[in-house]
């Protein structure tokens, strides 16, 4: 098992994280055992961040002990793997609008104590400001609203200066008529007000019309 980044591994075909909750699956993923360690396979077709790793993401924004803010956490597929990476002394504050998704995420949080579900719109940062007593080490966003870069920049208020974030940019959610390249240029200009752009990746074939943008807070 080759170590790609802190907490992320590969057997040359698939991506894995060490299972924080041994013996338990989250979404039907494959579990393998190597050298007395249990690893959960990370599906790039179900995780934009994993798709980015498969396509050459140059830096992992998460690490052991990391405090992360995750916008658009859904039912917790990607969150569960981040939970593995940050381990028991880390924390993931998960914001999502969907009550159905939040119900499932809350059940996951009962099994994984480093996950903190927050039912809120990511545009209304005042709704969850009280949960974030200190600034976070990492910011990740995977939402479908039209003003994705604007929301990401608004939440940059919670990110430590010099720390990293990743935006999963869904171009078709922003405009059906513009090309994905034109949308990327427009969103990039917004991001550059708060961030230095470190890397831009297409995450096809795992997700069409999507980019993963790695940034560092100015």
From TrEMBL:
<dbReference type="GO" id="GO:1990259">
    <property type="term" value="F:histone H2AQ104 methyltransferase activity"/>
</dbReference>
<keyword id="KW-0808">Transferase</keyword>
<dbReference type="GO" id="GO:0008033">
    <property type="term" value="P:tRNA processing"/>
</dbReference>
<feature type="binding site">
    <location>
        <begin position="96"/>
        <end position="97"/>
    </location>
    <ligand>
        <name>S-adenosyl-L-methionine</name>
    </ligand>
</feature>
<dbReference type="Pfam" id="PF01269">
    <property type="entry name" value="Fibrillarin"/>
</dbReference>
<comment type="function">
    <text>Involved in pre-rRNA and tRNA processing. Utilizes the methyl donor S-adenosyl-L-methionine to catalyze the site-specific 2'-hydroxyl methylation of ribose moieties in rRNA and tRNA. Site specificity is provided by a guide RNA that base pairs with the substrate. Methylation occurs at a characteristic distance from the sequence involved in base pairing with the guide RNA.</text>
</comment>
<dbReference type="GO" id="GO:0008649">
    <property type="term" value="F:rRNA methyltransferase activity"/>
</dbReference>
<comment type="similarity">
    <text>Belongs to the methyltransferase superfamily. Fibrillarin family.</text>
</comment>
<dbReference type="GO" id="GO:0000494">
    <property type="term" value="P:box C/D sno(s)RNA 3'-end processing"/>
</dbReference>
<feature type="binding site">
    <location>
        <begin position="77"/>
        <end position="78"/>
    </location>
    <ligand>
        <name>S-adenosyl-L-methionine</name>
    </ligand>
</feature>
<dbReference type="InterPro" id="IPR000692">
    <property type="entry name" value="Fibrillarin"/>
</dbReference>
<keyword id="KW-0489">Methyltransferase</keyword>
<dbReference type="GO" id="GO:0003723">
    <property type="term" value="F:RNA binding"/>
</dbReference>
<feature type="binding site">
    <location>
        <begin position="121"/>
        <end position="122"/>
    </location>
    <ligand>
        <name>S-adenosyl-L-methionine</name>
    </ligand>
</feature>
<comment type="subunit">
    <text>Interacts with nop5. Component of box C/D small ribonucleoprotein (sRNP) particles that contain rpl7ae, FlpA and nop5, plus a guide RNA.</text>
</comment>
<keyword id="KW-0819">tRNA processing</keyword>
<protein>
    <recommendedName>
        <fullName>Fibrillarin-like rRNA/tRNA 2'-O-methyltransferase</fullName>
        <ecNumber>2.1.1.-</ecNumber>
    </recommendedName>
</protein>
<keyword id="KW-0698">rRNA processing</keyword>
<dbReference type="InterPro" id="IPR029063">
    <property type="entry name" value="SAM-dependent_MTases_sf"/>
</dbReference>
<keyword id="KW-0694">RNA-binding</keyword>
<feature type="binding site">
    <location>
        <begin position="142"/>
        <end position="145"/>
    </location>
    <ligand>
        <name>S-adenosyl-L-methionine</name>
    </ligand>
</feature>
């Amino acid at each position: 098992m080759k170590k790609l980044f802190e907490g992320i591994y590969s057997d040359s075909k698939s991506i894995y994280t060490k299972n924080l909750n041994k013996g338990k699956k989250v979404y039907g993923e494959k579990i393998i055992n190597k050298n007395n360690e249990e690893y959960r396979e990370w599906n790039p077709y179900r995780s934009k961040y994993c798709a980015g790793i498969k396509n050459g993401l140059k830096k992992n924004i998460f690490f052991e002990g990391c405090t992360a803010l995750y916008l658009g956490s859904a039912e917790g597929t990607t969150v569960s793997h981040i939970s593995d990476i940050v381990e028991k002394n880390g924390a993931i504050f998960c914001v999502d609008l969907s009550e159905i998704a939040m119900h499932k995420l809350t059940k996951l949080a009962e099994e994984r104590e480093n996950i903190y579900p927050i039912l809120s719109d990511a545009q209304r940062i005042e709704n969850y400001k009280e949960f974030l007593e200190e600034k976070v080490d990492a910011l990740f966003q995977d939402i479908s609203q039209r003003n994705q870069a604007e929301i990401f920049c608004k939440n940059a208020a919670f990110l430590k200066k010099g720390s990293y974030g990743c935006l999963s940019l869904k171009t078709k959610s922003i405009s059906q008529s513009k090309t994905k390249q034109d949308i990327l240029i427009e969103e990039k200009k917004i991001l550059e007000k708060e961030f230095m752009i470190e890397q831009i990746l297409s995450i096809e074939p795992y997700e069409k019309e999507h980019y993963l943008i790695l940034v560092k807070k100015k």
